Amino acid sequence: MKVKVQGKIVEFPESISAAELAAKLHLTMPEQAVAVSINGTPKDLSTMLHEGDEVQFWNFDDPMGKEVFWHTSAHVLAQAILRLWPAAKPTIGPPIENGFYYDFGNLTISDQDFEKIEKEVEAVLAENLKTERIEFGGKEEAKQLFRNNKYKCELIDSFEGKVTAYKQGEFVDLCRGPHMAALSKIKAFKVLKTSGAYWRGDSTKEMLTRIYAISFPDRKKLKEYLLLLEEAKKRDHKVLGAALDLFSFKEEAPGMPFIHPRGLIIWNRLIEFLRECQLDGGYVEIKTPTMMGKELWEKSGHWFHYRENMYTSTVEDREFAIKPMNCPGCMLYYKTATHSYRELPMRVSEMGHVHRFEASGALNGLFRVRSFHQDDAHLFMRPEQIREEINQILRMTDKIYMTFGLPYRLELSTRPEKSIGSDEEWAAATNGLKGALDDWGHSYRINEGDGAFYGPKIDIHIRDAIGRSWQCGTVQLDMALPQKFELEYVDSDGTHKRPVMLHRALFGSIERFFGILVENFAGKFPFWISPYQIRILTVADRHLPYAEELAKRLRSHHFVCDIDASNESVGKKVRDAQMMKVNYMLTIGDKEVENKTAALRTRDNVVHGEIDISDFLAKVEKERATRALMSPYSTSP
Description:
Elements: E1 2-5, E2 8-11, H1 18-24, E3 35-38, E4 41-43, E5 54-58, H2 63-84, E6 89-90, E7 95-96, E8 99-105, H3 114-126, E9 132-135, H4 139-145, H5 150-158, E10 164-168, E11 171-174, E12 188-198, E13 207-216, H6 219-234, H7 237-243, E14 247-248, E15 258-259, H8 261-280, E16 284-285, E17 291-293, H9 294-300, H10 302-305, E18 312-315, E19 318-322, H11 327-334, E20 346-355, E21 371-381, H12 386-403, E22 408-413, H13 423-440, E23 444-447, E24 457-463, E25 469-478, H14 481-484, E26 489-490, E27 496-497, E28 500-509, H15 510-520, E29 534-538, H16 544-556, E30 561-564, H17 570-579, E31 584-588, H18 590-595, E32 598-602, E33 607-611, H19 613-625
Parallel strand pairs: 1-5, 16-20, 22-23, 29-30, 29-31
Antiparallel strand pairs: 1-2, 3-4, 3-5, 6-8, 7-8, 8-13, 9-10, 10-11, 12-13, 14-15, 17-19, 18-19, 20-21, 21-28, 22-24, 24-25, 25-28, 26-27, 31-32, 32-33
Helix pairs in contact: 2-3, 7-15, 12-13
C-alpha cells in the first residue's frame, strides 16, 4: 500500500493506522505527531489509512497540532474537576490562542484551589488513558448519556449532523475531535486563572466558572511560557498607558478610551504614516456619517445579523444606528456617481470611528473596546485586477509592519460550506488571492473552508518582541455588498457590470494597534513616534534661560521637547526621565551654557557627554525622517 506522507511516497505491505505509520517514521517524541490530517481533513491517529491517502502529521509547533493538544488537555482538566467536585457541570472547553479554558456550572473555586487541581491533573495523566471516539446513533441516545447535564443537552439539540463524543477512563465529553491517541504526550500542565463567564456568551443566562490553563509536551516549554507571562505583565499596556499618561478610561464612558495629549502624539504619527502609505498607493480618503438610518443597515444585513451589537437611537420617529462598520457608508459613496472601467481600480480609505457593544466583562484596555477607529479601505476593481491589487496591499503591509519591526505571517481562508456566489466567482476570487500570495513569495497557511460566507480572505498575524501573535490586518474579498447595493461600472463595451470589492485594514483597530505597540516596545517607542522625544534637565535655576532658548530651537524643528527645571537633583531628574522612557536627555550646566552645547544621555543610560547641538539636530532629524528603530547614539532602541 502506498500513501503520501509530507509530500513523499511511502510504501507498506499492508494497511496500517496513522498512529502505526507515525511509529514507523519514528515520530514518537511528545511534541511529534500529536495530530494528523488525512486528505486534508483532521482525523484521529487511530484512523486506518488507504491506498493513495495524503497524510500530514502535525507536531506541537503547528497551529493544528497545538489545537488538538490543548483540546485534549481541556478534557483532562474537566476530568480532574469532576473527580474533585463531582457535582460540577462541564459545559464547553475550547482551545484558544495560548492554551484553553473550560466552563463549569455549579462550581465555585478560587486561586487557592489551583494546586489541588494540578495535582489531580497529574494523577489523571499518570494513568496514561487512551482516548476513544464515540458516535451516537442519534440525538436522543446522546441526550440519554448526558441526561444529568442540561448544558450538554442544550448543545446536542443545537447540533446538525452526527453527534460524537470522546471517552478517556470514566470521563466522557461531547466533542467532534480529533484528539490525541493517549494522554502520555502531556508532560506539563498549569492552571492560569479563573473568571466568570455567561453560558453561551449571553448575559441573560447564568454565570459559569471559567478555568484557564495551558499544557506542553515538556516542562521546559512551560517554564519559558511562564517567563513570557511575567515579561508580559511588565509590558501591560493598561499599566504603562497610565504611567506614561497616554490614555485613560472613565466610568462615564465604559470601553471608550480617552486619548491624552502624549497619547495623541503617537496616534497622529500612526495616522500620518498610514496616510503617507495610502497616498503613495493611489488611495482617496472619505469620511462618512457616524449615525445612519435603519434602512441602510437592513440593506447591508447588519440589522438582522448584528443588531445586538449596535447602538441605536430614534430621531423624529425614525430609527438610526451608530455605525459598527464603515462598509455601508462607502457603498453609498460609490453610488454617488457613475463609474467607468477606466476608473478601476478605485481605492477608497476611511479612518472610520465605529461603535460596537461588548459585554463589560469582555472589555480589556485598548484591546477590546466599544468605541474605536478602523483604518478601512474598500477597493473596487475588475476580476482580472484582483491579483495585482492584493500584491500592492502586501507591499504596503510589509512596509508598515517592518517599520515597527513586527514580523508577520499570512493565512488564506477559502470557501466555507455556506456561501453566496457561483463556483466560477469563488474560483476567480480564491485564485486571485492565492496567486498574489504565490507572487509575494512568503510562506502562508491555507485554512480550508474558513473564509467568510461572502468571499475568501487573507489574515495577517504579527509577532511582537516577546513572541506573542496578534491578528491585526485582514484582506477580504466581498461578493455580498456589491450585490446588495447594486454597485456597477460601465465596461469598455458599454455594458454595466458589477465590480469586485476588497475590504482592507492593516492596523485593524487603531486603538488595539496602539496597545500592541505599547507592549511591543514596553513603552520605549522609536524616536519618530515617541511621545517623550527630548527632555532638557537644568542643573540650577540660572541655566533655565538657555534651556528655554534650546527648547525653542528644538520645537522649531517640530520635536517633542520639555524642560525639567524642578528643584530636584540632576540624578533624580534623570531617573524621572528614564521612568517616562524619554529618548534623549540634554543636561544644561555652566559649561553647556558657556559653550552653547548640552550633555547628552540616552534612555539606555549611556552618557555621551558634551555634544554640538547642530550635530545632534542633524542626527535626530535623520532618525525621525527614516523612522529608524535604532538610535544613532545607542546600541539598543
